[in-house]
Amino acid sequence: VTPRPADATDDGQPREGAKQALEQRGRKLSPVKLLRVIGPGLIAGGADNDPAGITTYSVVGAQNGFSQNWLLIFSTPLLIVVQQMSARIGNVTKTDLAASIRQNYGRNIAATAVLLTIVANIITIGADLVMMAATVELVTGVAFVYFVIPLAAVMGIITIAFDYNTIRKYLLWLVAVFASYIMSAVLAHPHWPTVASQTVIPRIDLTSTYFLGAVGLLGTTITPYMFFWQSSGEVEEKRGVQGIGRSNLDISVGMVWSNITAFFIMVVTGSVLFSHGASINTAADAARALEPLAGAQAKYLFAAGIVGAGLLAIPVLAASTAYAVAGFFGWRRSLGRQANRAPQFYLVLALALVVGVQLAISGVNPIKALFYSQVLDGLIAPVLIVLLLRLSSSRKVMGEFVNSRWTNIIAGATIGVMLLADVALVYTVATSGLP
Amino acid sequence: MAETEREQAAHEGVQESVRAWWSAVLAGHVDQTHPVRRGVSAQVKGEVLHLNGSVTSAEERQELAEEAAQLRGRGISEVKDNLVVQAETEDRAGVLVQTIVAVYENGEQAQAAADALFAHGHTPRGLMKIVTPDCDRVAEGLHVVLPELNWSDADRALDAGRSLLVVVVDETAAFAVRELLDEETHSLLIVIAPPEPGANLAAPAEPADAGERERSSS
């Protein structure tokens, strides 16, 4: 066995480290290859704006106008840093988040995190399905319940029957659907100087509506299923530490696109619904309310965005659930495997969809489902970010690829923001009761 | 058994499983992927053999085409190659290595895992060794191979009577090796040390020291 060398060479020079070796590799991404970089990060950014998320942004815009747009600029670095920590754990440990948590913090902590994530994901799938189907009902006039099973079946077939590369392409194309919100915003004719000034100049109203909208917006933006998806996506892509730069770029593009989409949703509802005092509860309500105020095209574009968002987010939610469970138990797991080569993984994925469908058609109030999924996400997110922070700043786990000081500061701020969101949720329930 | 004989046996085992897989494809069983090229499946429709899935290089695609060509005359008149060569990766082998420690109930299971690595073509870079609870940890160089922060994981497993398979692999191969050990062997725990420069952990060497493996697993 060759002895492990000391940190310094015989002539006193520091021995080459892993990062130095990577730098000496001298590989830079050429502009032509930049397009190849996009993958799980951009998909996660798209999936962040699921129909439930669109509902939250729509309601915030309708209630507060443009006054909370600045929060999207504030939350973008938080989102990027948390996703990059998740990715880097996958890049270094060569496994997904659930397996890393189990290995480093034991089965009890991992089981709790995975269980809460499963419940939150499934409720979110149910709420997303209802909102997608309600949107299709809005366009077709046929009762929404008839669309729930066909929509879930399409997503189930795509996720189970096709391999990762095909699913990846399908999801990446769907990310483009969110451009419909940019077009909706143009059709809504907002007063752009007002939009711009309220976006770059923070304004805080000391009202409960404003404060609760703000924490709801931040809680919707930073969600646990994205952490699991991101680390598993890095493993699927087999991006090692040599791919960290590509991964960071992919994530940055994805999260910026995610918040640009959210921005335009809030511009649409802020410029049309807020100014007319329209009250909405769901994203489908928002699409419906747009028609008399901004025209049928705005309604259809908004509706197309909701359906596209669901087609993107639900496979990610179901796959994240399966990755988390299979990672916890150490089962075979990959969207790149055929179903018979990873039966437990695909069974969990299918069950997540089936239970979500059951929730959607059982008459569960989508607003309640949205509330409870946000509560669970809000409770588990700070705990998971603490685990992410500890894992990604551990020398034992990450070696030289530990967090930078700025990453630790931003991650700490994110935990603070998420805890604030939890306090606000408790306050809401204490003062207004459960929905 | 000498190391070369063990490797030879593992290689023959792989060839046999590949032959069995092609026979299953000809018999109409399409539910398994290729035993070595795990992203590849095949299906016979009429007299046409369809190759589907993805490979990592043009060479790999050529090897599969040659395997498939040998089936001509066994009810196959044409091979339709639908394989996709994945985009060239930016990653370079030889820059970094990672040490992986897989924990097993006993030395036999650890040995079987080592054989599985060879069978799937994962020749370790630097070393591969099996460490049993009764071995001399100093002589085995366990604390030399593993970074200090990972010593406690290895010591705890050995103190609990478990055996270890320790393997140093190129960082670019670490995903596949970890996945194999994690999902296809009876590993109880996988510990993976952070990446470090290849120069820190021995130049490419023989896959395993047969003498040490025989001694430590006995």
Q: What's the topology here?
A:
The complex is a heterodimer of chains A (435) and B (218).
Chain A: H1 18-25, H2 34-37, H3 40-48, H4 51-64, H5 70-93, H6 97-140, H7 145-161, H8 164-175, H9 179-187, H10 192-200, H11 208-221, H12 224-237, H13 244-276, H14 283-294, H15 296-329, H16 343-361, H17 366-392, H18 395-398, H19 405-432
Chain B: H1 3-26, E1 40-45, E2 48-55, H2 58-69, E3 78-81, E4 84-85, E5 96-104, H3 107-119, E6 128-131, H4 137-140, H5 142-145, H6 151-159, E7 163-170, H7 174-184, E8 189-192, E9 196-197, H8 210-217
Percent strand of chain A = under 5%
Number of helices of chain B: 8
Mean pLDDT rating of chain A? 86
Main beta sheet of chain B, described? 5 strands, antiparallel
Output the radius of gyration of chain A.
Answer: 22 Å
Structural category of chain B = alpha+beta
- Helix-strand category of chain A: mainly alpha
Helix content estimate of chain A:
over 70%
How would you characterize the overall build of this protein?
The complex is a heterodimer of chains A (435) and B (218). With 435 residues, chain A is mainly alpha-helical. In chain A, 77% of the residues lie in helices and 0% in strands. Chain A has helices at residues 18-25, 34-37, 40-48, 51-64, 70-93, 97-140, 145-161, 164-175, 179-187, 192-200, 208-221, 224-237, 244-276, 283-294, 296-329, 343-361, 366-392, 395-398, 405-432. In chain A, helix 3 (40-48) packs antiparallel against helix 12 (224-237) and helix 4 packs antiparallel against helix 11 (208-221). With 218 residues, chain B is an alpha+beta fold. Chain B has helices at 3-26, 58-69, 107-119, 137-140, 142-145, 151-159, 174-184, 210-217; strands at residues 40-45, 48-55, 78-81, 84-85, 96-104, 128-131, 163-170, 189-192, 196-197. In chain B, the strands form 2 sheets. In chain B, strands 5, 6, 7, 8 and 9 form a 5-stranded antiparallel sheet that branches. The longest helix of chain B is centred in the first third of the chain and has 24 residues, at 3-26. The radius of gyration of chain B is 20 Å and the shape is elongated. The chains are: A mainly alpha (435), B alpha+beta (218). Chains A and B meet through helix 1 and helix 18 of A and helix 7, strand 8 and strand 9 of B.
